[in-house]
């Protein structure tokens, strides 16, 4: 079976597995990678960009190489190749867990238990929950759902379509490293620079596809396009900007504004200025939009891989042949 069909069948099975099972409670491969990356950091850390780049190379390169070896080992078996692709997809995407956490916080807010919502918020994002009221928590959840739709699902599918199992695994390694060392703290300002920049590059195509699909799958396509065009570039993140702006326009809400991370306050531009303030009910709407975007991304990625496979299969005729 051609590699394009292996990806289509395997990725669909893996995404369905995520829908039905969510993340494994124990022994998650991404958690194992995080522990390994932490051990490498303890050996290599210096307050220097070069050492951080070495850390990124060792961790991402190692994960990608292991995935390539596994892929090579099963390439003679159609069933094993599909199973490996499905397992890798299930391991690296996190759409179901994202939706569960968002809905749990929404349920707590709906029941009037703001303290319970604050306690769960760190499972979803790095905001300071004590600095947020009920509506602020709801806004943080919607923003996190938007951004993680790209990071946890769409980006992985895009790179899986481009590079198969190694592409899936390498993208998740890049994204995980950015979460670990890519932020602007005193410890990681230099050491995490390479991881942060690589994450920007790796996340670029998935973020644009996420934004485009959110305009198609949302309630207000024109509003999504307008917010994307006018506000995305004002966001400090080149990838979160298009995604959050398109979600804001699709849902008809305002995102962005003042944020607090561990006592550090940031004043970000407002996305979709003409929208209304986020309400608790918008959390469920954002989760449903995220789910639609994820399945559309699977279709686009699989179709793109199939089209590329057909084009490659229809290359130049052998010498001596005529049409």
Describe the structure in your own words.
The protein is mainly alpha-helical. It contains 11 helices and 2 strands, in the order H-H-H-H-H-H-H-H-H-H-E-E-H. The chain has a two-stranded antiparallel ribbon with strand order 1-2. The longest helix has 48 residues. The chain is globular.
A few lines on this structure:
Pathway: Cofactor biosynthesis; adenosylcobalamin biosynthesis. The protein is mostly helical.
Question: What labels describe this entry?
Answer:
Cobalamin_biosynth_CobD/CbiB, mainly alpha, 323 residues, 11 helices, Cobalamin biosynthesis protein CobD, 5% strand, single chain, transmembrane
Following the backbone from N to C, one meets helices and strands in this order, namely HHHHHHHHHHEEH
Largest sheet: 2 strands, antiparallel
Provide mean pLDDT, rounded: 92
Summing up helix and strand content along with how strands pair, one would put the structural category as: mainly alpha
CA radius of gyration is: 20 Å
Describe the global form: globular
């Amino acid at each position: 079976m051609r590699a394009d069909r292996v990806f289509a069948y395997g990725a669909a099975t893996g995404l369905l597995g995520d829908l039905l099972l969510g993340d494994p409670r124990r022994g998650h491969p991404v958690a194992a990678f995080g522990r390994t990356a932490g051990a490498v950091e303890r050996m290599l850390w210096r307050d220097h960009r070069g050492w951080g780049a070495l850390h990124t190379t060792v961790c991402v390169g190692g994960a990608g190489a292991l995935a390539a070896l596994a892929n090579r080992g099963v390439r003679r078996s159609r069933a094993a190749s599909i199973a490996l692709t499905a397992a890798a997809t299930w391991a690296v995407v996190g759409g179901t867990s994202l939706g569960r956490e968002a809905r749990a916080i929404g349920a707590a807010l709906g029941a009037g238990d703001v303290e319970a919502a604050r306690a769960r918020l760190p499972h979803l994002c790095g905001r300071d929950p004590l600095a947020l009221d009920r509506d602020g928590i709801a806004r943080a959840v919607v923003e996190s759902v938007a951004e993680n739709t790209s990071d946890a699902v769409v980006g992985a599918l895009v790179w899986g379509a481009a590079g198969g199992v190694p592409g899936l695994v390498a993208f998740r390694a890049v994204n995980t490293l950015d979460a670990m060392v890519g932020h602007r703290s005193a410890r990681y300002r230099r050491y995490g620079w390479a991881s942060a920049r690589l994450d920007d590059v790796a996340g670029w195509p998935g973020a644009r596809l996420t934004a485009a699909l959110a305009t198609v799958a949302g309630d207000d396509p024109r509003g999504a396009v307008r917010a994307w065009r006018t506000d995305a570039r004002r966001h400090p993140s080149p990838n979160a900007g298009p995604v959050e702006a398109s979600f804001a326009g699709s849902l008809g809400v305002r995102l962005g504004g003042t944020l607090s991370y561990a006592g550090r306050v940031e004043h970000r531009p407002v996305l979709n200025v003409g929208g209304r303030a986020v309400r608790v009910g918008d959390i469920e709407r954002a989760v449903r939009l995220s789910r639609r975007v994820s399945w559309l991304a699977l279709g686009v990625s699989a179709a793109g891989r199939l089209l590329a496979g057909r084009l490659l299969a229809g290359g130049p005729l052998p010498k001596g042949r005529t049409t």
